[in-house]
Design goal:
Strand content: 25-35%
Shape: globular
Strand order of the largest sheet: 1-2-3-4-5-6
Number of helices: 3
Helix content: 25-40%
Radius of gyration: 16 Å
Amino acid sequence: MTAPLENQIRAARDAFARLEVEGARVRENEVVNRFAFECLLPRLANGLPLHAPGQLGIEVTVPQIEGRGGARKHPDVRKDLVIWSEPGETCWSREDGRPVHWPLAVLEFKVASWKDGPAEARGKLVDGREADLDWLERATLAAGRLLGFSVVVDASRAPWTTDVALVSGGQVRPKWWASAR
C-alpha cells in the first residue's frame, strides 16, 4: 500500500509548486494547513489509501518511539501532519488509552520564514531536519508500514524552495521531491 500513498503525495507536488511560486508570507502552521487542504484533499479518491478528509490530522498524537532521548519522556508525541488508514482513527488503545496505533504516514515540516534570521533559519532547515529524520528513521523501523516525510521549506523569499525526504523501513531517500529557486 505504500506505493499508492507515495503516488498520492507526489501528485500533491504540482499544487504545492503553485504555492512556491506564489511565495506568500507564511510560517510553518500555514504551510502545513495549505499543503493539507489545498494540495492533498483534492487528491482523495475511492479505492486509494487517502480516500476521506477524516484521515488527515494536523498536530495530532502518534506513539513515541522507544528510547527516544531528550527532555520529552512521554509515550506519545504530536506530529505536524498525519495520514490515518481510516477516517477518525487515533493512536489511542480503546482498552487502556495507551498510544499504540500507528498511522499510514507522518509528515514533519520545517519552514524558514521571512521573520527568521540566518541562525534561526539554519536551526530549522538543517538541525530541525536532522532531528526529524532521526525520529522518522526510528519510527518507520518500529511501525513497519509507516511512511515518513521530512518536508523542508525555505519560505524566506519568493519563490519558496522545498526539499522532501522520504523515509521507509528506516531508510532515507533524500531529494524524493525538490524544487529550486
